[in-house]
Backbone:
């Protein structure tokens, strides 16, 4: 089964439609994406607990990193021992307000979705590790949630070193939406960090991106929440998801429909 690809521009437009017309919040979309990541990654498919419970989730500053934070929470609930490396937290413009008893009446405390996700992980005693190199040494599996479909390069510190270490490591990797350092259209860079990066597994969220045609490995798709009108508007294929799963395994020869 191969699926049509969606361009980065259309993927961003689709997310906007989901929130502005579909009634979805950013938190909800991150939750569904992170749940799909957690179902694909191991999790009795690629890496059962018997293969090692130490899962290192590497999160970037954007929404892709938020998906990784959600996945880490689910992994903790599944019985894994996740840890999170989150070197550069982003500033998201989409916030949700909540009242605080410490503020004057009528004032609101602004808390980002990522901050709430961090709090949830801290409440589960999931550690945020300060040293990536040391954390990688004890990892049995790695979730690459650094960059998503909006990445266009170039890599900026601290990510060139991180990508290089992941690339040269023997630890199996699941990348979220696109292998980090890859251009969403043209695939891996021709040289430098990421030029030889080929993770063991890739999960495309909502639909494959054009760079999937350069990928060789196990490919999953998560997007079971899409409505018929969204599928038709963007010309997507809607795969048959088995049972109650949020993900389905698919081929990697996605056709460009840009």
Residues:
């Amino acid at each position: 089964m191969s699926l049509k690809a969606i361009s980065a521009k259309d993927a961003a437009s689709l997310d906007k439609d989901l929130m502005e017309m579909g009634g979805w919040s950013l938190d909800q979309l991150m939750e569904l994406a992170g749940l799909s990541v957690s179902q694909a990654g191991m999790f009795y498919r690629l890496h059962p607990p018997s293969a090692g419970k130490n899962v290192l989730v590497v999160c970037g500053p954007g929404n892709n990193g938020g998906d990784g934070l959600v996945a880490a929470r689910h992994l903790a609930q599944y019985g894994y021992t996740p840890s999170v490396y989150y070197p550069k937290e982003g500033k998201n413009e989409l916030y949700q307000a909540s009242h605080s008893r410490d503020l004057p009446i009528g004032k609101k405390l602004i808390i980002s979705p990522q901050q709430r996700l961090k709090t949830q992980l801290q409440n589960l005693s999931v550690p945020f590790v300060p040293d990536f190199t040391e954390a990688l040494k004890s990892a049995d599996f790695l979730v690459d949630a650094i960059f998503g479909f909006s990445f266009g390069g170039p890599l900026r510190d601290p990510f060139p070193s991180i990508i290089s270490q992941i690339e040269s490591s023997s630890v199996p990797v699941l990348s979220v939406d696109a292998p980090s350092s890859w251009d969403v259209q043209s695939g891996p860079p021709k040289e430098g960090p990421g030029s030889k990066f080929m993770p063991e597994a890739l999960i495309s969220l909502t639909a494959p991106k054009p760079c999937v045609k350069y990928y060789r490995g196990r490919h999953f798709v998560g997007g079971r929440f899409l409505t018929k009108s969204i599928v038709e508007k963007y010309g997507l294929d809607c795969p048959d998801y088995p049972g109650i799963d949020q993900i389905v395994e698919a081929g990697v020869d996605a056709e460009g429909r840009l």
Strands lie at 54-59, 81-85, 96-98, 109-111, 141-145, 173-176, 201-205, 218-222, 247-250. The two ends are 19 Å apart (CA to CA). The longest strand covers residues 54-59. The chain has a mean pLDDT of 87.
